[in-house]
Amino acid sequence: MDIHSEKILILDFGSQYTQLIARRVREAKVYCEIHPYNCAPEFIRKFNPKGVILSGGPSSVFDKGAPSLPKSFFNEIKVPILGICYGMQLTAKLCGGKVERSKKREYGAADLKAKKDVIFDGLGKGAVRVWMSHGDKVNELPPGFSTIGTSENSSICAMRNRSGSIYGVQFHPEVVHTPKGDKILRNFVMKVCGCRPVWTMKSFIDTAVEDIRRKVGNARVVCGISGGVDSAVAALLVHRAIGSRLTCIFVDNGVLRKGEATKVESTLKKSFNMNIKRVDASARFLKKLNGVEDPEKKRKIIGGEFVRVFEEEAGRLKEVRFLAQGTLYPDVIESVSFKGPSATIKSHHNVGGLLKKMKLGLVEPLRELFKDEVRSLGRELGMPEEIVNRHPFPGPGLAIRIIGEVTAKRCEILREADAIVLEEIKAAGLYGKLWQSFAVLLPIKTVGVMGDERTYENTVALRAVDSVDGMTADWVRLPYDVMDRISRRIINEVRGVNRVVYDISSKPPSTIEWE
Question: What SS3 state is found at 401?
């Protein structure tokens, strides 16, 4: 069965939630892709979707140069269309309705009073909580449209045309703040567009293995693994396809977590009999990082050195014709964003220069997947839970969790403190319930008293957040007894630390990582 035969096209108008729309569609086991709102009509025809979703966006339809569509779009697209927030306002405007600037921007929870319609099937009786985020609103329906939902502040909160092929909702069904929003999107995808649920990880494996074998043929492949779930799953999938013709190079850059290199190498070698070539380049990396405090410079140094080390080791292998990478779909989306390509995507593991120098082809078996799908894929492939469910770890590693200069001594302090954080979080049964938990070494020394002596030593910050996808995150209210054990253990067991603080910042406005 072709897992791409049932698919939805999402046109991106710049919403911060666009990836969440795709996530919800994928959760319905239907394949979808995100593309810029201004992609060519020829591309849409070739893509041949069974439905189109217009995302929200930060613009007003009244803004000069606001993203738009040709007026003919709604007549030329012969499949169902769903406009979300800005997408609804644009739909109303282009189809002949009227949109006005709201006197007051509506942001936050609202109660939707939904009329009977297939898109609202299964929502139950009474008002439904939804999430609003808009400055414009539709105040007059386009000809041939009817209102199918209202709220206290929006007399036209949801609409559809007479044939039921064009829908619009003022709220965001994709966010967790719209508790039944996944049902709304599922109804659109399954009942309105008629998609079948054929996008599963089991089916994906069969398709991906066949694609890898077809592309690679009898050639050898090299893959860089970092200890993260993405590179490990990518390597395992390629190994499933071509076996011993894959060689993985594990570069120990000196800023990994405690025992990480040994654990990953051992797991992949023993459990899957994979060819792993481990390179200890820690001294080399730390020498390059000496005296560097700027976080972006740290990233570039680590990325550049990774490429050089990987290049040297890969160059020693014979008959290698392909390079495998763990690129994920969010990286692909970002690189084709309508706002313009990003120059910093995966900069820490970008080995693109190697492709030209060694004349290698590129294998990216995960480029259609989101992070949660990669984890599901790893489980389907039989990867141990300790790797599959591993908290996200940045490519530059501990270097961007050490605020200020990165030295061997500071790495060791943070490595030991971080190990204690993870040990206690796991012992409390919290690891699988958190998105991330880790320690940060601050460039601050404070006065303390240990025994009968005055100390002047380092401060460690503890960070624990809950998230669905890393796009937004809330700080976790860890039990006091857990924080107490972590603090006491770090101060007692890690030489050079006399104070532990807890980060209670959410994303936004803060980020999850400190650098």
Answer: coil
Peptide bond into 36 cis (omega under 30): no
* 426 CB neighbour count, 10 Å cutoff: 13
Domain finish residue from 132, 160, 192: 192
Q: How would you classify the pairing of strands 7-12 and 31-36?
A: parallel
pLDDT digit string, tens, across residues 54-90: 999 988 898 888 999 998 999 889 999 999 999 999 9
pLDDT value at position 345? 33
Most confident of 126-140, 348-362, 408-422, 451-465: 408-422
Pick from 128, 163, 192: which residue ends a domain? 192
**pTM higher than 0.85 for the full model?**
no
> Concatenated DSSP letters for 375-393?
HHHHHHTT--HHHHTPPP-
Same domain? 21 vs 63: yes
pLDDT at 216 (0 to 100): 95
Q: Residue-wise over 349-373: b if at least 16 C-beta within 10 A, else e?
A: bbbeebeeebebeebebbebbbbeb
Looking at the fold, whether 417 and 346 belong to one and the same domain comes out as no
Task: Give me the active site residues, please.
Answer: 85, 172, 174
